[in-house]
Amino acid sequence: MNVAYVRVSTAEQNEERQVQALEKYQIDKWFQEKVSAKDVNRPQLKAMLEYVREGDTVYVHDFSRLARSTADLLSVVELLKKKDVVLFSVKENFDTSTPTGKLLLTMIAAINEFERENLLERQREGIAIAKAKGKYKGRKKITRTKFKIWDELYERYQIDRTFSKAAFARKLKISRNTLDKLLKEENAERKRQHETT
């Protein structure tokens, strides 16, 4: 099946140019949305990624329709690859089913990893310099006591099971990784209290 993903950033923009460029590929299913590509958490993108199956081909006008950052683009491409779905970009004339496409994808991934390592190295150097000058205090640790509604949400998540982990994290405006650490601490604390009583 040929699947198309079309995206423009704002309601004022027109997606007609993308649609016209993709029509010649005999598209069976269209996914269209008007939303920024600041991240990959977009309704129609998620729907498209869930919809496609092995043997399908996803057509986009250009890579920026899928993602703005290399990391986000690679995560989408990797997901499609795991599902044995081909990605074709009209503007870049890029097809992940060809040897050239696979090579270019590997190079993009390598460049992204190189840039990430360079960024981390610069961060480490900056922290070392700040520490030497006594100016580095580090990131403020997030603790459970910071949140007044922690106990209530914990009960709903862990005891009543009426609250999902994703909803828990959203309510506290923290990442899932941070929530996992806090839950680990909470569970360990409750276990210690139980053992001493």
Would you kindly provide a written description of the structure presented here, covering whatever features stand out?
By secondary structure, this protein is of the alpha/beta class. The chain is built from eight helices and five strands; from the N terminus they run E-H-E-H-E-H-H-E-E-H-H-H-H. It has a five-stranded mixed sheet, sandwiched between helices.
Please outline what is shown here.
The chain has helices spanning 16-23, 43-51, 63-66, 70-82, 99-132, 150-159, 165-172, 176-196; strands spanning 2-8, 29-34, 57-60, 86-89, 94-95. The model has no long low-confidence stretch (mean pLDDT 85).
Tags for this entry?
197 residues; alpha/beta; five-stranded mixed beta sheet; 8 helices; 54% helix
Give, in spatial order, the strands making up the sheet with the most strands: 2-1-3-4-5
Q: What structural category arises from helix and sheet content? A: alpha/beta
- Give the biggest beta sheet: 5 strands, mixed
Extract low-pLDDT stretches. Answer: none
Total strands? 5
Helix content: 40-55%
Q: How large is the count of helical segments?
A: 8
In whole angstroms, how far apart are the ends?
62 Å
**H/E series:** EHEHEHHEEHHHH
User: How many whole angstroms does the radius of gyration measure?
Assistant: 23 Å
C-alpha geometry: extended
> Which range does the strand content fall in?
5-15%
Mean pLDDT: 85
